[in-house]
Amino acid sequence: MTALYELLSVQFAYDQAMVLDIDEFRVAGNTITAITGPNGCGKTTLLNLLAFLQLPDSGTLNFRGQPVNVSNWSRLRKRVSYVQQKPYLLNMSVRENVELGLKFRNQPNNDRRRRSAAMLDDLGIAHLAERSAGELSGGEVQKVAIARALVLEPDVLILDEPFTHLDQRSVGFFESLITLLRDDRGKSVVFTSHDPIIAQVLSDRIYSMLNGRLVPCAMTNMYSGHVIADQHLFASSHLQIHIPEQIQSGTHLVIDPVHLVLSRSPLQSSMRNAFQGRIVALQEQSDLIKVSIDAGEHFQAVITHEAMRDLDIHFGDPVWVSFKSSAVHVF
Amino acid sequence: MTALYELLSVQFAYDQAMVLDIDEFRVAGNTITAITGPNGCGKTTLLNLLAFLQLPDSGTLNFRGQPVNVSNWSRLRKRVSYVQQKPYLLNMSVRENVELGLKFRNQPNNDRRRRSAAMLDDLGIAHLAERSAGELSGGEVQKVAIARALVLEPDVLILDEPFTHLDQRSVGFFESLITLLRDDRGKSVVFTSHDPIIAQVLSDRIYSMLNGRLVPCAMTNMYSGHVIADQHLFASSHLQIHIPEQIQSGTHLVIDPVHLVLSRSPLQSSMRNAFQGRIVALQEQSDLIKVSIDAGEHFQAVITHEAMRDLDIHFGDPVWVSFKSSAVHVF
Amino acid sequence: HARDSLRMATTTSTDNSGLLKVLHPPFEAQHDIRVDVIAVGTGKALRLGEQGDVDIVFVHAPDAEQAFVEAGFGVKRYPVMHNDFVIVGPEGDPAGIGVLTSASQALKQLAESQAVFISRGDDSGTHKKEKSLWNEAGIEPGGDWYLAVGQGMGAVLKIADDKGAYALTDRGTYLAYQDKIQLKVVVEGAPALFNPYHVIMVNPEKHPHVNRQAAEAYIDYIRSEAGQLIIRNFKVAGKQLFHPDVIP
Amino acid sequence: MDYFSQAIAEALVLVLSLDAEVYTVVWTSIYISILAVCLAAVTSIPLGIVISLKSFPGKPLLLQVLNTLMALPTVVVGLLLYGLLTRQGPLGELGMLYTPLAMILGQWILVSPIICNLTVSAVSSADPRLHTTCMTLGAGTWQQGLVFMSELRLGLMAAVVAGFGRAIGEVGVAMMLGGNIEGFTRTMTTAIALETSKGEFELALALGMLLLLVAFVVNGFLFRLQRKSR
Amino acid sequence: MDYFSQAIAEALVLVLSLDAEVYTVVWTSIYISILAVCLAAVTSIPLGIVISLKSFPGKPLLLQVLNTLMALPTVVVGLLLYGLLTRQGPLGELGMLYTPLAMILGQWILVSPIICNLTVSAVSSADPRLHTTCMTLGAGTWQQGLVFMSELRLGLMAAVVAGFGRAIGEVGVAMMLGGNIEGFTRTMTTAIALETSKGEFELALALGMLLLLVAFVVNGFLFRLQRKSR
Ligand SMILES: Nc1ncnc2c1ncn2[C@@H]1O[C@H](COP(=O)(O)OP(=O)(O)OP(=O)(O)O)[C@@H](O)[C@H]1O
Ligand SMILES: Nc1ncnc2c1ncn2[C@@H]1O[C@H](COP(=O)(O)OP(=O)(O)OP(=O)(O)O)[C@@H](O)[C@H]1O
Ligand SMILES: [Mg+2]
Ligand SMILES: [Mg+2]
Prior knowledge:
The complex is a heteropentamer, with 2 copies of chain A, 1 copy of chain C and 2 copies of chain D.
Chain A: E1 5-14, E2 17-27, E3 32-36, H1 43-50, E4 58-63, E5 66-67, H2 73-76, E6 80-83, H3 94-104, H4 109-122, H5 138-150, E7 156-160, H6 168-185, E8 188-192, H7 196-202, E9 205-210, E10 213-215, E11 221-228, E12 233-236, E13 240-242, E14 252-255, E15 261-263, E16 273-285, E17 288-295, E18 297-304, H8 305-311, E19 318-323, E20 328-330
Helix pairs in contact in A: 3-4, 3-5
Chain C: E1 4-11, H1 12-16, H2 19-31, E2 33-40, H3 42-51, E3 56-59, H4 62-70, E4 74-89, H5 103-113, E5 117-119, H6 125-137, E6 146-148, H7 153-163, E7 166-170, H8 171-177, E8 184-187, E9 194-202, H9 212-223, H10 225-233, E10 235-236, E11 239-240, E12 243-244
Parallel strand pairs in C: 1-2, 1-3, 5-6, 5-7
Antiparallel strand pairs in C: 3-9, 4-7, 4-8, 4-9, 4-12, 10-11
Helix pairs in contact in C: 5-6
Chain D: H1 2-17, H2 20-53, H3 59-69, H4 74-85, H5 100-125, H6 128-136, H7 141-151, H8 153-169, H9 172-178, H10 188-198, H11 201-229
Helix pairs in contact in D: 1-11, 2-5, 2-8, 3-5, 4-5, 4-9, 5-8, 5-9, 8-11, 10-11
The complex binds adenosine-5'-triphosphate (ATP) (2 copies) and magnesium ion (2 copies).
One adenosine-5'-triphosphate sits between chains B (14-15, 19, 37, 39-45, 85) and A (135-140, 165).
């Protein structure tokens, strides 16, 4: 099966400053993809490409195997919906805003009415339908913007920090809605978030961005520091971590939580890195448990309930964290 | 000592719709106050009053004991800084934006330069100083807006969802900055947030809002349902909770986390409410531990390390949650 | 407009006097023709004829008219009526030209005394007359005292009044403005101040769409006894403005 | 102040007398300028939107030219069209000179740069997210134009009102192309010019007041229209 | 097309001959209209900002009146000021009639409603957060006005350009209050009117082209100014 999106050697710059520099990035269909990363790393810019608002300066952007260019992008735009980071509502009623995309698709009037009403009802903002868009609270604006995108029932939903301004109940609702879109409707979702937990829980794939580059893993275990080249070490403020020999430079190091191994005592193994720490947080998450360990740096590991029981580790207990040098990304 | 803010019988309506209806609300000086609540409950409207952007339709709004009115509010505005929910940057450079408030206060040019440069440096956005405000990412805009408010060194800082769009590192930084402003500089902060953990960790006082009314406690343990009046019970979807006799109606019930009592076995006590559950999350927070219990409804309790040790409870263990009927708020 | 129409270009002074308002209705009723009057400067009126945008022109600039006909733009000039130019000036006549009977002498004296003179400066009939008078006097006017304002007659009178200056004007416009200004007639009746009006049909050979029938009917009418009597009887402020040329 | 009180008195007489001649002149002014402005709005608003949304080489130059065209004196527009419509001119055969149609054409040319420029300014001052929002919702070119019109209605209404003021208050085009023919192409402004040249300043001023009254009523009507469309 | 080619040829001659007389006329046009527009901008932009930010009873009426004043025919402005400045009038003693000063005054009156209205429209179309941001930062009334001017500079520049176009292209005020006195108050537009009345249409048109050229240069200058101020 061809990928939904395929980006190869894509670069993008505003004025002179290079903002995106992506070697290879693929999004499979019927998946949820999360993108996290610090402010200004290029998340929004990437989503602008995925929503066909901008074209790469160089490189290839394919959608379902088809190269995107100025001649087809306005047509392709009708197959994706994009909720921008700071959504703009038009100076009309909430209902008219939600119906706008349907109007552009020349849906008949009563059909538009029905679908917008159902959507507003679903999102619990039916009472706002006839309110002017200028008279909404921050969270209400966000909900209307999401409704405006969802009502189009697009193949792909692109959401830039969709949960900002939403209260907890709404966040929960949208989380299940997004999962439902993937599971029951076969849709795909790409979203950004600064909340690593939401990104982790919700997505099939997490990508981290830094300075315009994509790294396929969560930002959870990210440390900044420098490479000590001839010793094959990475020095963060509190730890020295073994890294693969070929890596010569980089200022950030990331470890995927699933590659962390926990044990009550030091392990005799091929894993070059092993640190002792203390369990400072435990959290149930779907069928897994997220464990936070303070070992100079904070590590987050994800283990099963059985593993937890077998290990017999508890909140506050000392514990060892080990991982192979090949499990780290340096960039 | 007179309160910093005092609101008595304050009401505010947009057009016809009543949005604020506050019996009594006081903010003490040199404290951090958090306000949480669902979308559209009136948080922003309340902050607009506290920032002297609007006056109540009726009731009294006092600032340091002095009634606020149209003749003094523009003067009082110079003593508070307000970061709005969706901050607006002017179409000039970042530095000029940050210096704007100082310019309005007729600070000399070199003083403005120095203070804005220092502030941008503190917030890690010195490299953005000469960038045009229109060319920033979402989080960068938020940081500039916060810098623009902080550089004025106001007595009172009012922040509407200040952590939206910020990456995790920046959130952490601003959290410590806010604490520092209170502890070392004697300032006061009022902020809103949808993140109950941030609200809890950061503030001296948490208020919850619902439908324009203020309730002085966190939203963490909030359940919706209805009052069964003659039995003095509140029925949520999963539990029935004993409530004070005088309460006749209400659709929401809230329990302050600090009033929850945990035990390994049922307690013989005056506490009318006792439910059995299971520990599903543990999290270290400053000197305390936050415990989440699933007992039909989710309860969040806060206990000390010693209490945790004495009780000898662990992740996944069964546990009893008890509280007095007088510990609940119904509204 | 279903009715047949005759387009006439005329000078502002003719139209402004109000003569056409009484002269035309009998003609229009009799021939069921509507006369569309386009009142503009003399130069522009002749130009509109040249371009073929009107059927007939009714102006007072003998030399220009001559040239117009000779160039073949117009068929023939018919004298219709005349009145006269006058030189007006501030009360008391500070330049003392009122005693002179020759217009060019009067202008010469004006130039010598450096009294302010306002000129139309717009190549209109009046302006052309003024230039020929200066010519006769052998003077090339210029300097601070000579202001060419390039406007209509009324505006010139207003400016002259404001500045306490002299000006050459047709009598009709002066009579119309008499109440609004303090200027007085200082020189009149000199033969050189004669001001004849002619009507000319635009040449249908050059411009085939010219409404020849109506134009000829109009010329006949305006030179008929009926037309001429209306001209003679037309009065502004109790004074006769125009003297018919066909009837005595 | 005799001058002004007399002018006001004459204005009252004009309004109250309901003279058929005055009525014709007022009506000619109104319908010609309204038609010209409608024509200009229909052509120039879309043009302005397109110009400001597209980027193409020579755009700054085009904008500067459009700005410059706002300085077109009415007489020059009159002269230009005269050159086309005179019997000798390329369109002379149509016999359009000295008809209301010619005046409408002239005022259209006069008003178009104003409406076009102010449209460009309204679009450029709009929130840039308006454009991207339209794109993300899949708007076609036409649909996007309609959305812009509705979203920028305040600014566009100001453009139309400015254009209307220009059209109803101008005299050069009406004079050159209409010819100020009584009962046919005489408008309030050409009548004012005529009375002024006759020295009937008070009457001219009274006509001017009448013109402002008419403009006031038309603007009130436009305002109501705008408020309704909200 | 003889008419137009002749006009273009005459325009070239006008520009290339650098005739002192032509130069005087061009310069008179420029300095009078620029001074009038500066005066109008200085008075009407602040006024427009205040009007749109304050709410007071009668505001809709005031706005409608301001809109109406955009329809002021130039001749009517001329008549009004004439009534004041004529020797018999209340300000006659000043002897201002038929001077450049009177023309500047007249064009100021003419242009002010345009700039004021377009300012109101620019402020009303601005993001409402601009106002609240100023307030939260503690801006005084004056400071806020300055911020609005800088923030809305695009729209305000459009207002000024429209006003300049109106001023340099108008003829009624220049004619009535300036008197078209050669070498003193003759502007390009009054010269055009004069040549037109003489029937020298080609020369008039050539002058019109010259006027547009001048306006083009001035607008280019304004643009550069605006870009610099960014
Ligand atoms: N219009 C623009 N012109 C110039 N630079 C821009 C523009 N928009 C964004 N940038 C810069 O490009 C970089 C990437 O911006 P982008 O908005 O993609 O970041 P982001 O990852 O979405 O950040 P955030 O988490 O703050 O939303 C940033 O450094 C930003 O300053
Ligand atoms: N300008 C306005 N005109 C009319 N109603 C308004 C206006 N602004 C807000 N409201 C309404 O007032 C109520 C309170 O709004 P407010 O912005 O204070 O909510 P909030 O608690 O800040 O919500 P959020 O969490 O979404 O930011 C909402 O129902 C909102 O729809
Ligand atoms: Mg972003
Ligand atoms: Mg809010």
